[in-house]
Amino acid sequence: MTKLQEKWNELADVKDVLAGRDWFMGTSGNLAIKVSDAPLQFLVTASGKDKYKRTDEDFLLVDAAGEPVEATHLKPSAETLLHSAIYNKTGAGCSLHVHTVANNVLSEHYGRDGKIDFKGQELIKAFGLWDEDAVLSIPIIANHAHIPRLAEDFEEHLTADKGAVLIRNHGITIWGKDAFEAKKLLEASEFLFQYQLALLQIK
Ligand SMILES: CSCCC(=O)C(=O)COP(=O)(O)O
Ligand SMILES: [Zn+2]
To answer: Of 16, 48, 85, 132, which alpha carbon lies 20 to 30 A from 24's?
Structure first.
């Protein structure tokens, strides 16, 4: 199996699991996985597809600028520039973006603070935060319709090989060293969001 096929299958498997969680409503969401460093090339979801289905047109290979490596009728995700920024600025190997009700509601609720903090929650350990007083702080940025402008704000938070950014009333983009880590961080974040939303609802 070639590296490209291996990475394709890895991303397709992650996509299936996230689809099982119903995290791709209305064709929302996009996923990417790095295939090579020199030249930098990554697979990204084709734009506007029904991400609940598994087909051989789900992903296409793009370069560091997010442009297709080969002629294709497929369009890279509208948010490919965010994934490009991740691979250009960090050592991450996989990046995931989903829209959920919980991440949207909390991004609006805490939007003016520019971040949401989690403390005293077991699942922040997924981010490597093991101290009793540790705080997981997830930045919240404005949802600019102009993707290069959105990418500009997003890039400011690309300070480590793993991380997460909430885009206000839009969704979360998360990255990690590989597909396993990115999925783990996404699941942990969504657990924390669902918990916080439930807590606000009973208060
Ligand atoms: C229909 S959702 C609006 C676009 C978006 O935010 C998204 O995540 C999906 O866009 P893509 O081009 O990656 O399909
Ligand atoms: Zn989106």
So the answer is: 85
